[in-house]
From TrEMBL:
It comes from the Bacteria. The keyword Signal applies. Pfam families: DUF4878. InterPro entries: DUF4878 (IPR024267). Keywords: Signal. This is DUF4878 domain-containing protein. Residues 22-136 form the DUF4878 domain. Residues 1-19 form the signal peptide.
Length: 137
């Protein structure tokens, strides 16, 4: 289980050295955009609120601290990249691709920068919970 969690975190880190952000909301697109926005703002607590972990992973000692550390490292890389490119100009989400049961979705988020013609693109996986859409690790 821990290997799977670490693989999920590493996937996020790779994807979000390019992008990040989201909030438990009404649509996966809005949550994905918010997630990326929070990453670039450096809001680790906000990012953590948007992530859903399996109960068996969430309840393990040290998992939240480890996840917070990985998120902070990811945010530092994202912020450094944005600073070098003149800051974030826009964050947009393409329409979600849903699973057959509509409980999972994937959203492509594009981050454009003020002084760069090369946008960052990330694919964000989400899961529908009782609290709305959450980032799925």
């Amino acid at each position: 289980m821990m290997k799977r969690l670490l693989a999920g975190i590493l996937s996020l880190l790779m994807a979000f050295s390019l992008a990040a952000c989201g909030s438990g909301g009404s649509s996966p697109e809005k949550v994905a955009e918010r997630y990326v926005e929070l990453v670039y703002k450096g809001d680790a607590d906000g990012v953590l609120k948007l992530i859903v972990l399996k109960p068996e992973e969430r309840d393990k000692p040290g998992v939240e601290d480890m996840l917070r550390g990985k998120i902070k490292a990811m945010m530092a890389k994202a912020q450094e990249k944005a600073d070098k490119a003149g800051g974030v100009k826009d964050i947009t989400a393409a329409p979600a691709n849903y699973s057959e049961d509509k409980q999972r979705a994937a959203v492509q988020v594009t981050v454009t920068f003020k002084k760069s013609d090369t946008p960052d693109v990330a694919r964000i996986r989400l899961f529908h919970t009782d609290d709305g859409w959450k980032i799925n690790l």
